[in-house]
Design brief:
lipid metabolism, transferase, two-stranded parallel ribbon, binds 2-acetamido-2-deoxy-beta-D-glucopyranose, acyltransferase activity, single chain, transmembrane, Plipid/glycerol_acylTrfase
Length: 317
């Protein structure tokens, strides 16, 4: 039997937790090593200067964004293909305000790599959050908290004394910011959309929620397995460039037609907070949008499956 076959989706055969590898020739290794060691000091200097020093200064958003762009330029994350779903190619600025994420709205983003956070920060300067299957509330995160979360161990429940808030309250507290939610709560390799945690249900019915899909080419910069900082940096820094493909769908609202309220657990998993039938429809709509934008599929594998996968993966040697 194929290894890890129990961590493939039964319907589609997709394995969303296995790290993506880009085949490289041995001949090219020297080039990769050279590029890596040329860039690493520059990358670390800029990233740490920003993280430890500039980030804490009350700099205007435009300066913060410029710093983040320079962090992304060093590894060559410069080619960004951005499109609004159903809109002809154009720039963000030409679109009506209600078509793109704006202050007071929420971004429901795919979660695959630390680059998700860097990119979203460079464009929207948002407030980041972490979601958990067991609760509707979210944990507000700093930029670096969000980067760390993309390589952090899976958590089905928040740690004791985690600062949790309702998404609606967070939107109200930051009327001049966009709020980013990663509804899948833990990174995948980008090949599928996992069942959502219930955090988006905390959004008020009049708050636009924008599904935003980020995909990378090569996809080896995705970090489905926690703690692999070195391989992330190696993949990111040892080749000339990484492309990002960004798709933004039309906003979805947290509204239901009311009515039936049979509570159900997604996938009958007791680690997921109960969600009513109508509420599940709202989550499904957003998950469907992410799968459509990412040209992939929704799968039934939960974060419990991911935990079991990580144990199997780490125990393999
Ligand atoms: C979001 O919508 C669901 C129904 O679709 C509702 O149960 C829930 O209370 C709403 N959340 C807020 C904060 O209004």
């Amino acid at each position: 039997m194929e290894k890890y076959s129990q961590f493939r989706d039964r319907g589609s055969g997709i394995a969303p937790f296995i790290p993506v590898k880009t085949p490289r020739s041995r001949l090219a290794l020297l080039t990769h090593l050279t590029i890596f060691f040329l860039r690493l000091p520059m990358f670390l200097t800029i990233a740490l200067t920003y993280a430890l020093f500039l980030h804490h200064l009350p700099l205007p958003a435009v300066v913060r964004k410029a710093c983040l762009w320079s962090i992304m330029l060093v590894p060559g994350i410069w080619w960004v293909d951005l499109q609004l779903d159903g809109v002809r190619r154009g720039t963000l600025a030409e679109q009506p305000r209600n078509r793109v994420p704006h202050p007071g709205s929420v971004i429901a983003a795919t979660f695959t790599s630390p680059i998700d956070t860097l990119y979203l920060a460079a464009i929207f300067d948002p407030v980041f959050t972490r979601s958990y299957p067991s609760t509707r509330q979210v944990e507000p995160l700093s930029l670096f908290g969000a980067v760390a979360a993309s390589l952090a161990p899976v958590r089905l429940r928040p740690a004791p004394r985690t600062n949790l808030v309702d998404l609606g309250a967070l939107v109200a507290r930051h009327p001049d910011r966009v709020i980013v939610v990663f509804p899948e709560a833990s990174p995948t390799n980008g090949k599928a959309v996992l069942p959502f945690t219930p955090s988006l249900l905390g959004a008020a019915p009049d708050t636009p929620i924008f599904p935003v899909s980020l995909r990378y080419t090569p996809a080896d910069v995705t970090t489905p397995v926690p703690g692999r900082w070195f391989s992330f940096l190696w993949d990111l820094l040892s080749r000339p460039s990484t492309c990002v493909r960004v798709r933004i769908a039309e906003s979805v609202y947290n509204t239901s037609r009311g009515g039936t309220d049979a509570a159900n657990h997604p996938q009958d998993d007791a680690d997921y907070a109960p969600v009513s039938h109508d509420e599940q429809l709202v989550l499904d709509k957003i998950a469907d949008a992410l799968a459509r934008l990412g040209r992939n599929k929704r799968v039934g594998l939960t974060l419990k499956d991911k935990t079991a996968f990580i144990d199997a993966w780490n125990g393999r040697k």
